[in-house]
User: Which sequence fits this backbone?
């Protein structure tokens, strides 16, 4: 299969759904509108050329277990909104203080810190509004999915990992701490994306178990590759400065294990993730190719 | 009825539930824990002597329509978590830059801005985790409630109102803008609290309609009284500095209509909210007393 074409096609579906879900009413007062600046700030960050890995993983897992139709899209888009809010907040001066993201000025650089904070808050809340809207289908499954996504994004997931990341800056940290940061800051939401697709597509328990182990491995591999790219990636491809982890003395795989060993581990994780899917048929091919793409990407 | 005793009893129930819902595992790495600093920051803000008006409103409305038992508590506590996150983010230097809240240093003053931002994010996400956990009961009603709370808290509700508030600082604004700010920044979540109780308690459509109009009125009255207290309240009772709205040239009822007219309108809203409940029996007495309390409070 042509993975680039697959990713492009799915990205277009996700982008179109995101545009559809974000209200474009712009009245400043009265009725159901909301301030123009807030809409602009959200759109600036949401449509800035993201790869849409999380929503595409949820769609690919949904279709791999036989799911059909569009009902995955509210969850796919919710996952991307949560990811985007986390980037907006991470970029803030008080946290990572980044001026560029995907080759564009970060949200707070364009709209100011106050709007940056509130655009993030708005996107996170919008994700939950969107994901709780479906009123048909198996409502117990929907509630369970939203609950899992909340857990993966919150204090015991992404937010917890981000706090541990900040607190580890400039300190000597051990390997379990780096692993905690990676599996929580990045891994938890990637895993939740895969599991969302399986659950909504009504995959059986055995499938959920195998896909969960796949999701854990690619989630960790994804963050290791991110760390490697921060050291040796090309800034013009990444759209942001490199070397910042080293400068901030962040706890990363390369800083603890070196580049070569980090690359080896990421490749090993990718291969074992693919092996876990071997018992399944051709319907899991996109998930295998996404695992390869995560390792081979240059941005 | 003794409203002070009623509020105290309900507050104790809400406080106990909140303590129960917030995980106290504190491992920094591995397992299901999350960083200690995050837990401390969340607890600092969540247990700092709030009046718990929103959760108590949801409980009072739930019981007024015949709801029984504890199943309102996840929603009551979710509403309070969302309210608390909004206070933490509003207090940040980039937004209102407040050093004190309820007589204590604000979250970011104690734990730093980064943890302040992430504690807010964590609380907001925790609210949705908590509210989507119930797996029994009428799941369609639960999804509908969570969806309404998300809408009330987000870009078309509280976050939208907060952005409009910030953007109005130092400007001449008209009355519809001030009303937009008040009904969205504060009113939306208060209204959602009342409606949550009615929906979960299975009040009929007529009741929901009447309670909605009650909720709209007390939500607006609450913010008008807040604005009045900012002008003439006692700082030692409020636990925060007064006069800050004037200093920041915020768009408020007193700045547009004067103190006397603002007081008159708040009282009128309270009286008409109470009138709306007159067709109901003694079970709505707590809601009537809460309306009076909102107007008469000194903090």
Assistant:
């Amino acid at each position: 299969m042509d993975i680039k074409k697959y990713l492009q096609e799915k990205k277009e579906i996700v982008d179109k759904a995101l545009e559809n879900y974000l209200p474009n009413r712009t009245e400043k007062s009265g009725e159901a509108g909301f301030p123009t600046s807030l809409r602009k700030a959200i759109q600036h960050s949401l449509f800035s050329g993201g790869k849409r890995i999380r929503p595409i993983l949820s769609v690919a897992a949904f279709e791999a277990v036989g799911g059909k139709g569009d009902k995955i899209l509210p969850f796919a888009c919710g996952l991307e909104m949560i990811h985007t809010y986390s980037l907006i907040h991470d970029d803030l001066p008080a946290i990572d203080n980044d001026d560029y993201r995907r080759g564009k000025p970060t949200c707070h650089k364009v709209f100011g810190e106050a709007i940056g904070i509130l655009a993030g808050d708005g996107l996170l809340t919008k994700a939950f509004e969107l994901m709780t809207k479906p009123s048909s289908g198996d409502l117990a499954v929907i509630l369970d999915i939203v609950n899992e996504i909340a857990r993966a994004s919150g204090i015991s997931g992404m937010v917890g990992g981000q706090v541990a990341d900040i607190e580890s800056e400039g300190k000597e940290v051990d390997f379990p701490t780096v692993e905690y940061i990676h599996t929580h800051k990045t891994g938890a939401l990637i895993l939740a994306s895969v599991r969302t697709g399986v659950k909504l597509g009504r995959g059986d328990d055995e499938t959920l178990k195998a896909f969960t182990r796949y999701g854990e491995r690619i989630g960790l591999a994804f963050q290791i590759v991110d760390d490697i790219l921060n050291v040796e990636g090309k800034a013009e491809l990444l759209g942001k400065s490199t070397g910042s982890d080293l400068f901030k003395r962040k706890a990363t795989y390369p800083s603890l294990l070196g580049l070569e060993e980090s690359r080896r581990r990421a490749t090993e994780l990718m291969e074992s993730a693919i092996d876990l899917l071997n018992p399944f048929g051709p319907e899991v091919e996109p998930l295998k190719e996404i695992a390869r793409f995560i390792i081979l990407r240059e941005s």
